[in-house]
Amino acid sequence: MEIGWMHNPRQRQVLVFFVLLSMYGASAELGPYSVVEETERGSFVANVGKDLGLGLTEMSTRGARIISQWNKEHLQLKVQTGDLLINDKLDREKLCGPSEPCILHFQVLMEKPLEIFQAELRVKDINDHSPVFTEREMILKIPENSPIGIAFPLSNALDLDVGSNNVQNYKISPNSHFRVLTRNRSDGRKYPELVLDKELDWEEEPEISLTLTALDGGSPPRYGTAQVRIEVLDINDNAPEFPQRLYEVQILEDTPVGSWIITVSAKDLDAGNHGKISYTFFHASEDIRKTFEINPLSGEVHLRSHLDFEAIQSYIINIQATDGGGLSEECTLLVKVIDINDNPPEVTMSSITKIIPENASETLVALFSVRDQDTGENGRVVCSIQDYLPFFLKRTFKNFFTLVAEKALDREERAEYNITITVTDMGTPRLKTEHNITVLVSDVNDNAPAFTQTSYTLSVRENNSPALHIGSVRATDRDAGANAQVTYSLLPPLDPHVPLASLVSINPDNGHLFALRSLDYEALRAFEFRVGAADRGSPALSSQALVRVLVADDNDNAPFVLYPLQNASAPCTELVPRAAEAGYLVTKVVAVDGDSGQNAWLSYQLLKATEPGLFGVWAHNGEVRTARLLSERDAAKHRLVVLVKDNGEPPLSASVTLHVLLVDGFSQPYLPAPEAEAADAAPAAALTVYLVVALASVSSLFLFSVLVFVAVRLCRRGGAASVGRCSVPEGPFPGHLLDVSGTGTLSQSYQYEVCLTGGSGSNEFKFLKPILPNLPPQCPGKEIEENRTFYNSFGFNIQ
Ligand SMILES: *[C@@H]1O[C@H](CO)[C@@H](O)[C@H](O)[C@H]1NC(C)=O
Ligand SMILES: *[C@@H]1O[C@H](CO)[C@@H](O)[C@H](O)[C@H]1NC(C)=O
Ligand SMILES: *[C@@H]1O[C@H](CO)[C@@H](O)[C@H](O)[C@H]1NC(C)=O
Ligand SMILES: *[C@@H]1O[C@H](CO)[C@@H](O)[C@H](O)[C@H]1NC(C)=O
Ligand SMILES: *[C@@H]1O[C@H](CO)[C@@H](O)[C@H](O)[C@H]1NC(C)=O
């Protein structure tokens, strides 16, 4: 243990000076003495008696003792020996704290005589304390981008010891980023300073823990430790980063609004706000902003409005990711819109001819273009019309088509066509567009008027009033308008002698035919002429027809009695023998009628008689016969009036007066005549044969006609005698095939065999020979002819 005075003389002088001032009566100094702290009690410090030059007993005799202001006696004086001993362990730190040197002042007092000696004791430090950090753990927050060399002062450690026993040095546990420097404070204390040697990287090592050791200068040194936790502060040194620079999506054109499209996601290595990314469209066009939206937090891109492939096929969207520190990064989103078949084809008519002439071939009806805004199959179109129409479609160039009539059309066959142009695309589903065109076929005068019949037969009754409408002809024209307006005319007669212009006229507008004068069946039974019909087309077309006018008979002729001749100046007298049996044929009234048919059917009746009941008239053939036997009482002369009436409506009649003379016996000339051959052989006989032909129709079933041959032997006027020889008419009256024998009054009759062939409805019949009665004719010479006639023969002859 080293004991010695203060090594600094100047400091000691100052202390002495102070002691002198405070101590009244102080005479001398002792010491200085020194002692190491913590020295055991009773340890020797110094021998005060020796230092004062006193003898061994003098100390006790003088009554030496120690005086101090301490509240504890650190020292004791052994007066017997004069030794100054440690009374109590001295703790420098307690006595002086950090002050150095640590000096205790005391006085040695001598009572006899009073004498005071000033003395001081220096307590020397020993390294009995270790450095202690007041903070067991220090937390440092260091931004990761702090520059190399930057120093961070740390809290120092405290050591109660002083001097070299105090903290002398700091050390840090081994690490790659920091070293520690030991720094002097102005008060001499040492403190640690952490110096950055290598850049920090939060992303790599966000926290570093070190052990700081403080060492004092003792030997061996004592030490204390503390933990230093370094939190590396992230700085925004990382921009967000997209895993790919280009995102590509394909979406259908009809994707519903609001649909999710894609999520872009950037990563930022920074933490906290610096790593918090928000997404935005970058430099986006209005179209993009209208169509898409991006969730700034999640990066989800949604569809905001409808897509239209036809307007925009793809979008190039720049997306920016920005972190909280303002660093940003971009990526590109390529959105390809996939076409769907959402556009029907469009038809644009360039020209339409709505009216085409009927006989033009390959007429262009329409020129149109088609298009479809879709692409691919969705935009490929097929054009068609109904396949049963006489039109076809022709592609001219690109997407232009023509609609052409494939042949000359016939308006009369079809005047209107509804053509539906159907344009279909090939997409799924197929979309189609229809365009209807109505084409009217205009008329060309390609049809002549056509009469409804090639020939017309009209039944005009004779004696018509002039200007009578006798019938009509009609022609139709299949054309239209003026081309179908028909005008009628009479064509010049083939036979120039026919006075056609005076007979008929025609209304040019409606074809009504008029008789210009009263017709006379007996004069003109039929005539023919041609009528023409012309349309008003240009050039006009015409046609003609034959009109046959048949004049129908009217009952305008009264019966005409041929026999007996009615001449008052020369009456014909019939001779009847008184011996004649009942039914004797007296004579036969022969009459004709200029009319025909029923109008010419005659019937006879006895109108007046001198002696009623003696003679009878056969109604159908005009035969006059005796009704009974004659007697002597009957008068010789008789006068009969016979009425001849036709069957017309109203009937016309004629009367004839017969003179009959009854004679006795048979007179030769009245014998029955020889056979017909004999009569024929009589060349002198002047015979007149009347041929009466009648036409009659019976209901609708059949027609028949009857030919009547009447051989009449006319009375020959012989000499001056007024008595003539009268003939007997033979044959039935036409149309009356009645068996008259049943009447009982007449015993003789004419019979005909009529044989119809072909059954009911047939028009053909055979007319057979009449069976002549056995009676002798009164007038010699007669001729019977067999003939055959046809129902449709006209006219009659009188020979
Ligand atoms: C700190 O003090 C010690 C001795 O007290 C001295 O050796 C050293 O050079 C000083 N250091 C600085 C940086 O002043
Ligand atoms: C069409 O009809 C008119 C009038 O009949 C005629 O002039 C023209 O030549 C016809 N055209 C054809 C192509 O037949
Ligand atoms: C054509 O269409 C019109 C209007 O729909 C219709 O009145 C007419 O009868 C049609 N014509 C034909 C020939 O189908
Ligand atoms: C075209 O005509 C057809 C047949 O008459 C009809 O069904 C269709 O509706 C019409 N189209 C148009 C667009 O008028
Ligand atoms: C009647 O007979 C006389 C004498 O023969 C003749 O002159 C006259 O013309 C006849 N009359 C008629 C109407 O036939």
UniProtKB/TrEMBL annotation:
Residues 134-242, 243-347, 348-451, 452-561, 576-676 form the Cadherin domain. Keywords: Calcium, Cell adhesion, Glycoprotein, Membrane, Repeat, Signal, Transmembrane, Transmembrane helix. It is a single-pass membrane protein. SMART domains: CA. GO terms for biological process: homophilic cell adhesion via plasma membrane adhesion molecules. GO terms for molecular function: calcium ion binding. GO terms for cellular component: plasma membrane. Its main location: membrane. Residues 1-28 form the signal peptide. It is found in: Membrane. This is Protocadherin beta-16 isoform X4. It comes from Physeter macrocephalus (Sperm whale). The gene is LOC102992079.
